Amino acid sequence: MLSAPSDLQELRRRLDAIDDRLQDLLIERLEIVARVAAAKDNGSVPPHVPAREAQIIRRLVGRQGDRFPLGTLVRIWRELLAATVRAQGSFAVAAYATPEAAGVWDLARDHYGSQGSMIPYQSTMQVIRSVTDRRVTVGVLPMPQDGEKDPWWLHLLSPDVEGPRVIGRLPFGPRGNARADGDDALAIGYGPQQASGADRTLIATENAVDISHGRFSAALSAAGFNCTLIISCDHAQSANTLIEIDGFVPLADPRIAQLRARLGTDLLRLFAVGCYPVPLPKPSAARVELSAPAAVAAAASASAVAASAAAARGSRRASRG
Fold this sequence. Notes:
The chain is an alpha+beta fold. The protein has helices spanning about 5-40, 50-65, 70-85, 100-110, 125-130, 215-220, 255-265, 285-320, and strands spanning about 90-95, 115-120, 140, 165-170, 185-190, 200-205, 225-235, 240-245, 265-275. It folds into 2 domains: about 45-190, D-Maltodextrin-Binding Protein, domain 2 (3-Layer(aba) Sandwich), CATH 3.40.190; about 195-280, Alpha-Beta Plaits (2-Layer Sandwich). It contains 8 helices and 9 strands. The strands form 2 sheets. A 5-stranded mixed beta sheet has the order 2-1-3-5-4, sandwiched between helices. The chain has a 4-stranded antiparallel beta sheet with strand order 7-8-6-9. The two termini are about 35 Å apart.
């Protein structure tokens, strides 16, 4: 039953009042952000802290249940968080953007905000160089793949602890309408690495060519690591291997020493590549599949109603005849 015009106007007035309160709260939030920025003014804490942003979104997702669409919630807060970072200082993003990898640009925009400064680059090295030269704050690059001849992650391998590192994995929430022309993306940048409570760490090695993925997996497991990715790049005299492990793992972790001992002299060097907060879990297949029986039931119900109506019309025509 449709609401009366007076009821509709009242509902709209209530919505307007809610919008006013939301706007006032957003303004208050920005005022507090300004105070946070002042507290960070000594440079000890950067404006962009991926671990803190992940904690904020996880907490909100945890308290909302099913009362609000997950993808919409994440997108609203990603825009809000991006705006608050920009309010604390200069913030620009470099994104790898080629016709074959247009989805990387979409993921960068959705995560770092549609109103911020974004620069497209045609090569991964241009993205890395723009971050290294401090022309941008963050660079967004395609997910590494096994078998690449010159993978971009090789150019992050440095003993310099102040160099750029992996700081994020995109998308953090549902992918939305980002072009699905590839895998996820990784973000690189400067700043201290911090634990968010659910993280993955990337390390890389320079190692003997004949170390297999199986040997790496066995050594990692024996050292107490849960390995989620191993990618290798072979050279004439040695190889480089990118390894992803569960948890926040600094190189000072005792398990790293165990890994070195198990690989022995075949492990030439080991580098920290970065870490990132684990993205939100994708919607479960079970939940998606539940919609299929519901759709079938709805269709069957509609067919039954239509058949009943047709029978009733036939009965009325027969009685008139």
